[in-house]
Design brief:
Transcription Regulator spoIIAA; 6-stranded parallel sheet; 5-stranded mixed β-barrel; 19 strands; 37% helix; 20% strand; globular; binds S-adenosyl-L-homocysteine; binds iron/sulfur cluster; binds FE3-S4 cluster
């Protein structure tokens, strides 16, 4: 089959050449000094960005870099940025300011910034004017060009700015270093076509592009051979997967195919847009044993006028019906969501509709955000921006409605036994490890690092709002 949406083999081979050249420079440095060049990547934003950083790490390792313990000691520092809300951007500027001092002490340090934030013209201008210590800037469409960008910087000894406005091709086969051995993220699509009026993502990630199913399945087969048990399929709107591929494929069909892959035990996905969630998908989730009983289904707001102004293309009633349908087919489903409070014009009584949805849908978890004005989006132009104090008060009301429900649903698990995939040693108590139930709830139970990556039967003994406590049985 013609795979004309993929970056050509020559382009990738070209990057391999640059990787080799930089590796030679770094090997020479090692022979001369006995030291390896080191790097430090900081990632902001969503799982999409986290996965991109795994690709950056993969390329840098191929070029001979090792990971530094601390940013200040690194020879190469990268920020992979997010701009979905203003505070994400402020963090990047704050860190960059701090790096200026570090670079004064270590003038050899190279600083690169990439990711969503860099796709905005105004940000690029600010970096050029105020952050002259930055050596390289690239965007979300040309991440695979990192080796070439680094090489140009070495050759020209001048800053490199390489941002593309849009790019229809998909890059396959980048070297990737996964953060976890036993679980992995897999992109199934890039970009977003929905243009929710508050959201910057479509502007910085471009139009929707789906990967070919066989590329996705091959990648997952390789991961399974490598010992990966849990896969998270990533896309801004996975439900529209496959559109434009010119094949008879949907997200539901893809799920069924992934479900057949030996070695994979758990399949997750993010994120689903309610307007595109088909019955076919609900049935696939119900039928596929490996697909986890969890769905993240952002509703954003409960009032129909606000939903319309947000360009979400569903009503409160349609959302609640959808939730009913999912719960009917998959009774033990865990439902999580995203909520925005303080969208332009949203009154306190309209927030009551959001609270009504919370009470009716009974979420197992939620990410709640105060609306953040993003330049370039339609909502930023709306005249009726909400006063900060009012938004904060409504935000607290939303949390007060959510938290008791989450707590109550969590406590219903006490006394029951669940399969738990062990993830990590607990931050607080080193005698405990953390893991995830199939429905994505977090549980702490006694154990040690040798258990990480394995699945255990855990009986839940206690509940808190944001996690469970259990013991192995
Ligand atoms: N594609 C996903 C979400 C991506 S962004 C989806 O549509 O579900 C993650 C969340 O950030 C969104 O669901 C939304 O709740 C929040 N968000 C996006 N833009 C925002 C803004 N301008 N202010 C506050 N929250 C925002
Ligand atoms: Fe943003 Fe809406 Fe696209 Fe999600 S679906 S990324 S909220 S525009
Ligand atoms: Fe993700 Fe932030 Fe970009 S949420 S897609 S990293 S703007």
């Amino acid at each position: 089959m013609e795979r004309n949406n993929n970056v050509s083999a020559e382009q990738l081979a070209r990057q391999q050449e640059f990787m080799k050249k930089i590796r030679e420079i770094n090997d020479e440095y090692f022979n001369r000094t006995g030291k390896k060049k080191s790097m430090f990547i900081t990632t902001f934003g969503c799982q999409m960005n986290a996965h991109d950083s795994e690709k950056l790490l993969g390329m840098l390792k191929e070029m001979g870099y090792e990971e530094a313990q601390e940013e200040k000691d690194a020879d190469f520092v990268i920020y992979n940025t997010c701009c979905v809300r203003e505070n994400a951007e402020n963090k990047v500027y704050g860190n960059l300011g701090y790096l200026k001092h570090q670079k004064r002490e270590n003038p050899e340090m190279k600083i690169a910034i990439c990711g969503c934030m860099m796709q905005q013209e105004s940000v690029l201008q600010t970096i050029k004017e105020k952050y002259k210590h930055v050596d390289m800037v690239f965007g979300t469409f040309n991440l695979y060009k990192l080796p070439e960008i680094m090489y140009i910087n070495i050759e020209t000894k001048a800053p490199v700015f390489d941002i593309w406005k849009e790019h229809k091709e998909i890059v396959e086969d980048l070297p990737t270093i996964r953060h976890f051995k036993y679980k992995a993220s897999v992109n199934i699509m890039f970009g977003c076509n929905n243009f929710c009026s508050y959201c910057i993502v479509p502007y910085v990630r471009g139009r929707e592009r789906s990967r070919c199913p066989e590329d996705i399945l091959n990648e997952i087969r390789e991961l399974a051979k490598d010992g990966v048990k849990e896969i998270t399929l990533l896309g801004q709107n996975v439900n529209s997967y496959g559109l434009g591929l010119g094949e008879d494929i949907t997200f539901a069909k893809l799920l069924r195919m992934v479900n057949e892959i030996d070695g994979i035990e758990r399949i997750r996905f993010m994120t689903s847009h309610p307007k595109d969630l088909s019955d076919e998908l609900i049935y696939a989730m119900r039928d596929c044993k490996k697909v986890c009983n969890h769905i993240h289904l952002p509703f954003q707001a409960g009032n129909n006028d606000i939903l319309k102004a947000m360009n979400r293309k569903y009503t409160k009633e349609q959302y609640l019906e959808l939730v009913e349908k999912i719960k009917k087919e998959i009774p033990d489903i865990s439902l999580t969501t995203d909520i925005i409070v303080g969208f332009p014009g949203e009154t306190s009584s309209q927030v009551d509709d959001t609270i009504d949805v919370i009470k009716k849908a009974r979420f197992n978890g939620a990410f709640t955000f105060i609306y953040s004005k993003r330049t370039g989006t339609p909502a930023a132009e709306m005249k009726n921006q909400v006063d900060e104090k009012e938004a904060k008060e409504n935000f607290n009301r939303v949390l007060d409605a959510l938290n008791p429900i989450i707590y109550e649903l969590n406590c219903q698990k006490v006394g029951k036994t669940y399969k738990v995939l062990a993830d990590d040693v607990s931050n607080g108590d080193k005698e405990y490890i953390t893991g995830r139930l199939e429905d994505n709830s977090l549980v702490h139970f006694k154990g040690d690092s040798s258990m990480i990556g394995q699945i255990f039967d855990v009986k839940i003994t206690d509940c808190k709002t944001f996690y469970l406590i259990g013991e192995r049985v």
